[in-house]
Specification:
about 250 residues; 6-stranded parallel β-sheet; 6-stranded mixed β-sheet; 8 helices; about 35% helix
Length: about 250
Amino acid sequence: MKIALIGYGKMGHEIERIALSRGHEIVCRIDIDNLQDFDSPAFKSAEVAIEFTAPSQAYNNIKKAFAAGIKTVSGSTGWMSDHCQEMKDLCKDGRNTLLWSSNFSIGVALFSKVNTFLAKLMNSYPMYEVSMSETHHIHKLDAPSGTAITLAEGIISQLDRKNGWKPGTLTAPDGSISGSNECPAQDIRVDSIREGEIAGIHSITYDSEADFITITHSAKNRSGLALGAVLAAEFVRNRQGFLTMDDLMDSLS
């Protein structure tokens, strides 16, 4: 399969390594210094584009891929909440194809299912207060992470006593802390930490006066995300419309 990479940082390089190992061809690599290549024959020859960039760039990148008629896989977070309906409309009736996920790790997808199931169980036990924390490398721009937001939405869908989520504290790379521990009772507090080169840690805690229950997913490196992104590209090659990680997971099970 011919793949174009949009974003060629550490994640892009890891996606390239895994794609090549699975027999795919990288026909174009677009980064901040060669945006003109969206109009190149090489980019237009791609069957699927894989996009991992900053929140401020992702929306325009995907629109450019659509304009070139390229199916797209995107793992960029921090922008979809403002553009989700527009993306669904653009993909309506197979006019364009986008598979977006806040996290392409197969382990995170399984963890998300565990998280939703646990929330369903905890719906009957109001003495447990739920909160969440996420830790990422110092280069990550959005906080809370897109994965944390997705996990929070999974809890909200099952826990009648929660209607939304709120950012809690943010611990910066220099150790300074901003934000607040205060959170309305009907919301889930999500704390964020930016430290070193941590690939990603997400923890959900249910706390009571008697005990607490915590579930955690810890990424060792970027390889799980990269593999999931390549699997997603293989998945969308023969599909159309607006797709999610659930669609991919259903195809693998």
